[in-house]
Design goal:
- This protein has 221 residues and is mainly α.
- The protein contains eleven helices and three strands, in the order αααααβααβαβααα.
- Strands 1-2-3 form a three-stranded parallel β-sheet.
- α8 (165-170) links the parallel β2 (145-151) and β3.
- It is rod-shaped.
- Residues 211-221 have low confidence and may be disordered.
């Protein structure tokens, strides 16, 4: 008796439980669980739901997809990583004495990159903007780009970046307004004081896009 299977006494109870489940389970559920067709259907449902979860993960950023999820799509993932890279690039330029701007011997310029910037309250986004455009470029690629930064203040000293080393280390040309052209300069000063940013932006944008811009040319606009 001591060597008898200890689970033998449970067999009648398990059998009774199975019979009760069968008797209380709807026929369609029982068939789903026991027939080939039912099991195939359940397998299809399982893989369909698995596929749907995969699509929700893969296409949540696609606004044309049925799986688009606005609560996750606009999270800054790559942009934050890129901003960190740009900030490190600017920091490295600030601590380096090397010149990455205009070269003594350079191939023909194939692109002019112009940036007009004014002081912003708090963070100066021009640092990240310039850094993200330049970081990662091969030396050959950089040589084909002529970069111009226009400090859009009648007094450039008002802009926090004006004396930062990276500005002249990385850019090919830093432009400021020509104070010798009194009439034009006074007009710019008036727009600045009145905060007429629309007119001032119309004036600034073409200037920052011209690579070889002498003070005389700047004053004649």
């Amino acid at each position: 008796m001591n060597n008898a299977n200890p689970f033998a006494k449970l067999i009648p109870y398990v059998t009774l439980w199975i019979r009760r489940v069968r008797s209380n389970t709807p026929v369609y559920v029982y068939r789903l669980l026991t027939t080939v067709t039912g099991r195939t259907f359940l397998a299809f449902i399982f893989f369909y739901l698995l596929l749907a979860q995969g699509c929700k993960h893969a296409f949540y950023r696609d606004p044309t997809s049925a799986f688009f999820d606005s609560s996750r799509a606009y999270k800054h993932i790559y942009s934050l990583q890129r901003q960190r890279q740009a900030d490190l690039f600017i920091q490295a330029a600030n601590s380096s004495s090397a010149t990455h701007g205009i070269q003594v011997s350079r191939p023909a310029t194939t692109m002019c990159l112009g940036i007009a910037t004014v002081e912003r309250p708090g963070e100066q986004y021009v640092r990240s903007a310039f850094g993200s455009l330049m970081e990662g470029l091969a030396e050959d690629e950089r040589k084909h780009i002529y970069t111009v930064v226009l400090i859009g203040h009648t007094n450039p000293e008002h802009h926090p970046i004006y004396h930062e080393p990276w500005l002249r280390t990385l850019s090919d040309k830093v432009l400021t307004y020509d104070t010798a052209r009194k009439e034009q300069f006074n007009l710019l000063l008036k727009w600045e004081q009145e905060k007429d940013y629309r007119r001032k932006a119309i004036f600034d944008t073409p200037i920052s896009s011209m690579p070889a811009f002498s003070p005389e040319q700047l004053g004649s606009r």
